[in-house]
Amino acid sequence: MRTLRQLYRYPVKGLSAEPLQQIALRAGEGVPLDRAWALTNGSWTFEAGSYSPRPKTDFIALMDHAALASLATRFDDEENCLHVTAPDGRLLRIDVDDPVSCEKLAQFVARHITARLEGPPAFVAGEGFRFTDVSVLSHGMMNAVSLINLATVRDIGVAWGVDIDPLRFRANLYMDGGDAWEEASWLDRDILIGDVRARVVMRTPRCAATNVNPVTAERDMTLPATMMERYGHRDLGVYLQIIEGGAVASGAPITVAL
After folding, report:
1. For helices 150-160 and 223-231, what crossing angle results, to 10°?
2. Distance between CA atoms of 97 and 80, rounded to whole angstroms?
3. For residue 93, what are the β-bridge partners?
4. Which of 4, 93, 147, 224 could be bridged to 252 by S-S, CB 3.0 to 4.6 A?
5. Which residues pair with 72 in a beta bridge?
6. Are 134 and 241 in contact (CB under 8 A)?
7. 86-128, pLDDT tens digit by residue?
């Protein structure tokens, strides 16, 4: 029986996953506060009033900066604050509504990744936008929810003789109990996750961010290249658009609608 094993949001694009026990999903919307903030890479200036979705290469993200994985983050909804823990134990408390606090985080991350940026980075809020990788495709895709089949991850690991941490794929929903690779055949079909109905709208092409170990922050695999070599594609997981909303909790059954 397919079940929802894990739920995650990623409040800041490129930073760590935050586990959730339950979420409320609404039709046409993504996971609340998922990729609600981002760090620009200093090559452009963010203007909230005129912003339109930009490619992930315009942000500080894992595909270029593996050191991000060594930062542990947690967003406190009640305090409206982001808590960031550095590898040495230092703790930053960032008020996301305070420009000074946001600049402090941007400067801290710039020092942490030890990369030469084109200009000063900025910690920015989407204000109606989500900084998802597929936001550049359409408004609907910007609000898509990502799903990973754990059976597929295990199948690849066995075939390659390696242990693959599913969090490399930075998905919102992790499903277990199904057949490996079955999700790839669900394109344009509806699935039921508890009381929620979602449509599978796209397979997920993997990028170099999956090469980064989420525990060690080391670039220790070549997942997209190896997938292309062995399977002729680099797709793993799918994107969903929420058709009928509702509450979703860990353990919810997942079925393919007839």
Report:
1. 80
2. 8
3. 83
4. 4
5. 85
6. no
7. 999 999 999 999 999 999 999 999 999 998 899 999 999 998 8
Tokens of 7: 């739920």
Rounded to a whole number of angstroms, the distance between the first and last alpha carbons of the chain is: 16
How many other C-beta atoms are found inside a 10 Å radius of the C-beta of residue 255?
12
Q: Given the structure tokens 């295990």, which residue do they identify? A: 154
**Residue position matching structure tokens 């242990």:** 163
Helix ranges (H only) for 114-161 are 139-142, 150-160
Structure tokens at 51: 């912003």
β pairing state of 91-95 and 22-25: unpaired
Helix or strand (DSSP H, E) at 102: helix 99-113
What does the alpha-carbon distance between residue 240 and residue 258 come to, in Å, rounded to a whole number? Answer: 17
Long-range interactions of 8-11: CB distance < 8 A, separation 24+: 8/167, 8/170, 8/171, 8/172, 8/174, 9/33, 9/34, 9/172, 10/34, 10/35, 10/170, 11/35, 11/36, 11/37, 11/73, 11/75, 11/82
Contacts of 53 (CB under 8 A, 6+ apart): 129, 131, 135, 136, 142
Q: What is the pLDDT of residues 20-58, one digit of tens each?
A: 999 999 999 999 999 999 999 999 999 988 999 999 999
- 240 pairs with which residues across the strands? 145, 200
